[in-house]
Amino acid sequence: MHPGGVTSMPSFLRSFFPEVYKRTQEQGQDSNYCKYDNQSLQLFTSSLYLAALVATMFASTVTRKLGRKQTMLIAGVFFVIGTVLNAVVNSLILLILGRILLGCGVGFANQAVPVFISEIAPTRIRGALNIMFQFNITIGILIANIVNYFTAQIEGGYGWRVSLALAGIPALMLTGGSLMVDDTPNSLIERGFEDEGKAVLKKIRGVENVEPEYQEILKASKVAKAVKHPFRSLIKRHNRPPLIIAIFLQVFQQFTGINAIMFYAPVLFNTLGFESNASLYSAVITGAVNVLSTLVSVYFVDKIGRRMLLLEACIQMFVSQMVIGIVLGLKVQDHSDNLNRGFAVLVVVMVCTFVASFAWSWGPLGWLIPSETFPLETRSPGQSVTVFVNMLFTFIIAQGFLSMLCHLKFGIFFFFSAWVLAMSIFTILLIPETKNVPIEEMTEKNHKNIEATMADGGLSTSASDYEAKITPIVIISCIMAATGGLMFGYDVGVSGGVTSMPHFLEKFFPEVYRKTVEEKEVGSNYCKYDNEKLQLFTSSLYLAGLTATFLASYITRSQGRRATMLIAGFMFIAGVGFNASAHNLAMLIIGRVLLGCGVGFANQAVPVFLSEIAPSRIRGALNILFQLNITLGILFANLVNYATNKMKGGWGWRISLGLGGLPAVLLTLGALLVVDTPNSLIERGHLEEGKAALRKIRGIDNIEAEFLELVDASRVAKQVKHPFRNILKRSNRPQLLISIALQVFQQFTGINAIMFYAPVLFDTLGYKNDASLYSAVIIGAVNVLSTIVSIYSVDRLGRRMLLLEAGVQMFLSQFVIAVVIGMKVKDHSEDLSKGFAVLVVVMVCIFVSAFAWSWGPLSWLIPSEIFPLETRSAGQGVAVSVNLLCTFFIAQAFLSMLCFFKFGIFFFFPACIFVMSTFVLFLLPETKNVPIEDITERVWKQHWLWKRFIEDDSVQEEKVATDH
User: Fold this and answer.
1) Within a domain: residue 235?
2) Which residues does the UniProt record annotate as the domain Major facilitator superfamily (MFS) profile (predicted)?
3) N or C: the chain end with fewer CB closer than 10 Å?
4) Is 655 inside a domain boundary?
C-alpha cells in the first residue's frame, strides 16, 4: 500500500512518529520544507525497498530453478503476511518488519512478473502487455490515494489501519492468479519440460504450427543450460550492452524524481501550504493522471517505439520541473503557508504534466526494456540486477528525499531536471529500438547494430542506397543555394525591428507613432501596434510571394532550378533598393512586393535544388541549410536593428532595410556559380550534361543505377503536360495533403507571430525599446543554434521524432507563457518583475528552440523530397503558396488577434500544436535515408493509409491499359 497518505495522517504520526507530529502542529519550525525530515519516518517507507533489494538476489535463482509461476506465488504469500502485520501492529519495530516482508514480496514479484509477461506475449503486442505491470502499479497508487483520502476522515484515529489492511486485496489476487496461470514455455523448456512447454506454447498462441518459435526457444534453452554461473556470464562482453542499459534505466527512472513526488505527494502538498484533505485530493488527481497516461503507453509503445516515448517524455519532464522550481522559488518562502490560487493551480498542472510524461515512458519502459533485451541464459540474473538496482536507488531516494527537500528546497526540482537532461542524451546515443523484434532474436536483430533498428515511424529503411561520396562541390553548391534562405530570414527579422523604431513609425505610420507616445489614449496596452497599414508593410511580402510562386513553379520546371534562383536574386536586389530609398508608403510597399516575388522564386527553387543534389543519407542535413540561413538572416537582422536603432538623425531604419542587399547579392552570385541538378537537366532533355553533373556531384564513376532511375523518372515527368492538374490525381493526394498541412501547421505554431513582432511583443510586456531588440537578438541566437541541432539529428533520429518531440515542448512553453502573462500583465501595465520577465524570455527561447529543430526546417524539407519528379515543381509551388498565404494571414492578423485575445493568444496556438502533433503521429511517414526517386515505392506504398491511394491508382491505370 502506498505510504505517502498515511505519513500525513495525524493519528498515524502521533502513534509512531511523535517528533514529526509535534513539528506539524507547531508553526515555529526552522523551515517549512523540513517538517517531515525524520530518519525513522523515511525508514518506514525505504525499508521496503531495502528488503526488496536483498530479496531479488534470491528471487533470481528461484525464477530460474522453479519457474516464473512459483516465484510469483512466493511473492503473493510475502505480500499477505506483510499486510496483516502492518495493519495490526502497535510498535514501530513490528511496523518496519511488516514493511520488510512487503519488500520481499516486491523483490520476488518485480523479478518474475515482467519476464513472465515478455515471454508469454506475442511479439507484436509484447510492449503493450508488458506495460500492464506498470499500469497496475499506477492503478494501485490511485486506489491507495483514494483510500487514504477517505480513511483520513474516519474518526477514532484508526483510518491508517484500514489503508494498510486493504493492501491484502491485491496480495490475494496475485496469490490466486499465480495458482491459476501456466508457466511460460521458455521457463518450462529451460527447466527440461519440453513437451509441456510445447503444449503451453500451442495453447497461448492459439495455433498448431508453433514449430519455428518452439525451435527458437529450444535453441535458446540449450545455450541457457550450458551457463552454470549466470551472474558471472552476465558480465561477459557480449552481455554488457543489455546490462548497462538495464542498470542505467533503473538509475534514471528513480532520478527523474517521480518516486519522490509519488511517495510523498500528500507531504509535498502539505509542505506547499495546502490543507490535509486538499493534499490527499491533489494526490488522487496525480494518481488518475498516472493511470490514464500509462494507458497512452499501452497503445503507443508497439506503434511508435520505445525510444520516441522516452525522448518525448524527457523534454516534457524537463520543462515541467523547471517551471515548478521557478514558481516555488519565486512564490514559496521557508515559512509561507499558501500559494495563491493561480500559482497553486499552475504547480498542480505542472506536476500532472510531469507525471503524465513519466507514466507513458520511463515508468513502464524501465521495466519493459530490460525484460526483453537479455538472452534466455541471462534473463533471470539480468532481471535480478535490474530489480536490485531499481530498489537500491528507490531506497536512496526514499531515504534521502525529505532531507534533500529540507536542504535544497525548491532547488530539488532543478537537481532532477539535470538528471532528465543526462538521460535524454543517454537515450539518443545508446538505447536501440526493440519494438516488433521477437524476444529470442533480440541479440541478432538488435545489439549487433544499434543504428539499424532506431525508431523511424514504422518504415523500414534497410534497402541499399545509391553509392555516393560527400563531395566538395555538393557542399559548396548547397551552401551557395541556401543563401536564398538568408534573404528570406533577413526580411522576416528586419520588419519587426524597424516597426518598433520611432523615426520609422513617425515617417510612415504616424497614427501608430502617436499611440506609442501618448499611451493614455490607447484603449489597451495590447493594442498599441494594431494598425492595418503597419501590418500590410510586413504581410505584403508574403502576398506577393504567394502569387509569384505559381510562375516560379513553371520556370523551375522549364528553365531549371538554377535559373529560378537567379531571378530570385535580381528581385531581391531591386526590392532592397526600393525599401532603402523609400520616401513614402507606396515606395515602401512596392519594395516589399518585389522582395515577396524574390521569396516566392527562392522558396520554390532552393529546397528542391538541395533535395535533388544531396546524397540521400545526408539529404535532410543539407536541405536544412536553407532553414539555417533563414535563422541566420533573422539573427543578422536583429543585430543590425539593435545597432541602427541607436543611430542619431532618424535614418537608422534605412541602413536596416538597405543591408538586405548583402544576402541578395550572395544569392545572385551563388546562382551564377552552381551547376543545375541532374534531375532538372535530364528532365529538360540534357541527358549527357545531366549524367556528367551526376558523376561530378557524386564523386564516383559508377552512377549508372541512379542515372537510369532519373531517366525513368524524367520519362514519366515528360508525359505530364499539366503538372498542376496531375497533382490532384489520387496517387498524388497524400503528398499534396501533407505538404499543405505542414505549411498551415508551421504558421499556426505561432512562430512567425513571435519572430516578426518579437520587439513589439517585448514592448507590449513593458520592456524598454533597447531591451526589446536585445531580447530579439537572444531569440535569434537560440534559433540558429537549435537549427544546427536539426542538421545533426534529422538523418539520425528521423523527421517524425523531431516533429513530435517539438510538439510537446512548444505546447508546454506557450502554456506557461500564457499563464504568466495572464496573471502578471494587465492591460496597461508597464513592467513584469525581473523574475517573471526572465521566465517569459526562457519560455520563448524554449519554444523557439523546439520550432527551430523541427517545424521550421522540416516544413521545407519534407515537401521538397516527397513528390515524384513529374509533380515536384508543382508540388513545391503549392507548398510555398500555402506557406506564404498562411504567413500573410498571420502577419496581417496577429496584432489584431493580440489586441482581442490578449494573453489568450498563447492558448490558441497550443491548441493548434496539439492538432498538428496528432496529424504527424498518424499520417506522416518517415522519409530519412530513402533516395528521392524511391520515395513512392519505399514510403507511400508502405504506409498504413496512403498505400490505398497509390495502389488503387496503379490498379486503375492497369484497367485503362487493359481496356485499350
Assistant:
1) yes
2) 1-435, 477-928
3) C
4) yes
Residues 529 and 626 occupy one common structural domain: yes
Give how many domains the chain has, as a whole number: 2
Torsion of CA 224, 225, 231, 236, to 10 degrees: -60
Would you say residue 460 lies in a domain? Answer: no
- Residue 288, judged by CB atoms within 10 A of its CB (0-12, 13-18, 19+), counts as middle
636-665, pLDDT tens digit by residue? 888 898 888 888 888 899 999 999 999 999
Is residue 461 one of the residues assigned to a domain?
no
Instruction: Report d(CA 364, CA 294) in Å as an integer.
Output: 7
Distance separating alpha carbons of residues 517 and 509, to the nearest angstrom: 13
825 and 716 in a common domain: yes
* Dist. CA 300–CA 308, nearest whole Å: 10
CA 305, 308, 312, 315 dihedral sign is: positive
Q: Which three cell numbers stand for residue 100?
A: 520488510
Residues 35, 169 within the same domain: yes
DSSP per position, 539-599 = HHHHHHHHHHHHHHHHHHHHT-HHHHHHHHHHHHHHHHHHHHT--SHHHHHHHHHHHHHHH
CA–CA dist 482, 474 (Å, integer): 12
Mean pLDDT over 915-930 rounds to: 90
Task: Record the cell numbers describing residue 126, joined without a space.
Answer: 509484447
Q: For the residues of 606-639, what is the DSSP string, one character each? A: HHHHHHHHS-GGGHHHHHHHHHHHHHHHHHHHHH
pTM: 0.60
In this prediction, residue 104 has a pLDDT band, given cuts at 50, 70 and 90, of very high
Q: Which of 872, 932, 945, 953 is CA-nearest to residue 468?
A: 932
Contact, 115 vs 379, CB < 8 A? Answer: yes
